[in-house]
Structures are given as C-alpha cells and as structure tokens.
Write a structure and sequence with these properties.
By secondary structure, the protein is an all-alpha fold. Helix content is about 70%, strand content about 0%. The chain is built from 20 helices and no strands. Helix 10 packs parallel to helix 12.
Length: about 375
C-alpha cells in the first residue's frame, strides 16, 4: 500500500473510531452511576438490557435454584427487582456454560458486573484485532468497528463471539494450544464453537481442533457438575419458548418472518434452507486450496449470523470479525470494485439502522451479513 492510500485509510479509521466512540459515550450518558436511565418512562430499562436477564439467571443458578425455576422469566424479573430495584420484564435462555465461565464476576452487583463485562469485551476485541493488524490500526478498529457498540446497547454477547472467533482462527497454525483454548471458550456460544471446529477439520488443523475439543469438553463437564444436566435441557426449552412467544425480539430470518405474520412452519423451513445453502458455500470455500484463509474466515463469520434462529441484534457483532478478516485480505491483495462501498456500509451500519428500519422490519445488520457473504465469495480466487 502506498503512502497516500495508507494516509487516507488511517484518516478514515480515525473518523469512524471517533464517531463510534462518541456515540458509545453519548449512549452511556443516558444512564446514572447505578445503571438506570435518567429519563423516567424511557425505553431504556437498565444498562445492557439483555445482559441483566442473563446476570439474574446466572445468579439464580449459582444460588442452587432448580433450573426449571431459574429459567422462568418471572423469577428472573423478581430477582432483578429485589437486587437492582428495577421493575420490568426480563428473560434469558443463556447456556449454563456461559454462567460457569463468568463465575468469578458473579459475586458483584449488577452495575459493577456490567461495567466489567463491557471493559473485558472491548479489551478482548482489541487483542483479537491486534493478532491481525499493527497496533495503531488495531486500536482504531477496536472502536471504528461497531461490534462493541452493538453489544453495549443491548447487552448481547456478539463482541465476545467476535473476539473468540478471531483469536481461534488466526492462532490455529502457529499457536494451536492458544487457539484451542479460545475455541474452548467459544463453546459458551455452541454455534460459533461448531463453525470454528468445522474450519479446523476441513483445513486439517488437527492440533487446534484437538485442544479445542478437549477444552470444550472440560468446560461442558464442569458445567454439568455445577448446574446439572437438566439446566441444558431447560435452557433449550426456554430458548424455543422465547422464540415462539416473542419472535419480534429476534433479528434472525425466522424471527423476522414470524413477526411479519408468516406461518411458523414456513419461517422455519426458510431458515433451514438458507442455513443449508450458507453452510454448503462455507464448506466449498474451506475445501478450496486457492481461497485465502482470511476470506474463508470472513465467510464463516457471516454464515454464523444467518444460520441460527436464536439471533439477537447484538449477536451481529460476530459479523464484524468477518469484516476484519476481509479488511486484512484487502490490505494484502488489494480491493475489488465495490469493496469500498461495502466497508463504508459496515462502518456506518449503526447509523443506517434507523433509516433502514423505516422501510423494513429486518435490521440493516442482516442485510450486511448477506452482503459480506457475497463479497467474501467473490474474493475466493
């Protein structure tokens, strides 16, 4: 890359890092030091709205509450009312493995837990980007890419999925043990875990796959020992119930179609067919020796955003791991016609959401995920 192009690329990243960082801080000012919105009657219930439900669930499980009761929305809401004094409806179907991994932070009050969760999410995302880019660029991308912002605004886990995915895939060849460790942590998001293992197996990265499976099995075993096998069954039933009762809260194809009034069976079939097609494309790319690994990884991240029906808006943080992989490949091999428009849309996505939502119920992030699939597949040679 010549000096002029490098200058303008850094200028672009500085601009969006400043804009996204400012928007991040502006959103934070809506809340007081206890995590509650300043304006009464605000649609903002509590800082990291969805995270509050997960936190309450984890605390209930840690208090030895039977899983069938812990996953009840009524009990989760009651817990938050007693401990955080917020009177609203909360729910969660988070995996018990996620609770096990975050045990060291569950003894603190919710506002401290939320602050710690945000801090570690941004830090890990920055470390992941540093594994691919020089430090100045990694620091700028840490804020310019809106993965952390999406997670912060809703309390979702997308930024953690993005960080874990990047580190697992980037470190697989040179540091298979560290890659396996990060893969194992990704088991808290089972779909992400399986997609990473799919990449390892098809690319014959046996050591990383071995350590990832071994570490994941350890986390699974200790989670079962701590919470019981019933917790996993109850989590799944709770997820299905939430998807059935409140499909409009999801940003998946199934959730969008169901919310628009399509029959549930039609929405499910459509989701499955799209998932199969996307996975088929992923397997083809992973088996293609001429396809750069960064392009394969970008496609895989986009695929992860389109397969599951249990997908919140914040989960699209995973997609920005794909954007980072694609940016890395573009730095190495140059840009194709139209790539610049895609990257501009990716960096502007949080500002496009409000405009896009006026014309369709589907979030702009979903449209961007399909676009990332197309751009990645186009760069396969």
């Amino acid at each position: 890359m010549n000096a002029e192009k490098k200058f303008f690329q850094y200028l672009f990243l500085i601009l969006f890092a400043a804009m996204t960082g400012y928007t991040f801080l502006l959103r934070a000012t809506f809340y007081n030091e206890e995590g509650f919105p300043y304006e009464k009657g605000s649609v903002l219930r509590i800082m990291g709205e969805n995270l509050a439900g997960d936190y309450a669930l984890f605390r209930l499980l840690e208090n030895k509450t039977p899983p069938k009761e812990a996953y009840q929305s009524r009990n989760i809401s009651d817990f938050l009312y007693k401990t955080a004094h917020v009177d609203s409806h909360f729910s969660s179907f988070a995996s018990p493995m996620k609770s096990f991994v975050f045990v060291p932070w569950l003894s603190v009050a919710y506002d401290v837990f939320c602050e710690t969760w945000i801090c570690w999410g941004i830090f890990l995302f920055g470390v992941a980007l540093y594994s691919m880019f020089a430090l100045p660029k990694a620091l700028l991308l840490m804020f310019a890419l809106p993965a952390a912002f999406l997670s912060f605004t809703t309390g979702g886990w997308g930024v953690y999925a993005a960080a874990g995915t990047i580190l697992a895939l980037v470190l697989a060849d040179d540091y298979p043990k560290w890659s396996g460790f990060m893969t194992a942590l990704c088991i808290v998001e089972p779909l992400v875990f399986m997609l990473i293992l799919l990449a390892f197996i098809l690319r014959k990265q046996k050591k990383a796959a071995f350590y990832g499976i071994g570490g994941g099995a350890v986390i699974l075993m200790f989670s079962v020992m701590r919470y019981g096998s019933d917790a996993f069954k109850t989590a799944w039933l709770s997820a299905v119930k939430t998807l059935t009762d409140r499909p409009c809260s999801f940003s998946s194809l199934y959730g969008i179609l169901s919310c628009e009034g399509f029959p549930a069976i039609f929405a499910l079939i459509f989701q499955v067919l799209i998932g199969i097609a996307v996975l088929y494309g992923a397997v083809k790319l992973l088996l293609n020796p001429s396809c750069p690994q960064a392009v394969q990884d970008a496609y895989l991240c986009a695929a992860g955003c389109l397969i599951s029906p249990f997908f919140y808006l914040s989960d699209f943080g995973l997609m920005y791991a794909g954007v980072a992989f694609l940016l890395k490949d573009s730095d190495q091999r140059g840009f194709l016609k139209g790539d610049g428009l895609f990257f501009m849309a990716a960096f502007c996505s949080i500002y496009m959401e409000s405009i896009f939502s006026e014309y369709t119920i589907a979030p702009f992030q979903l449209f961007l995920a399909f676009w990332l699939l197309f751009v990645s597949y186009r760069r396969r040679y």
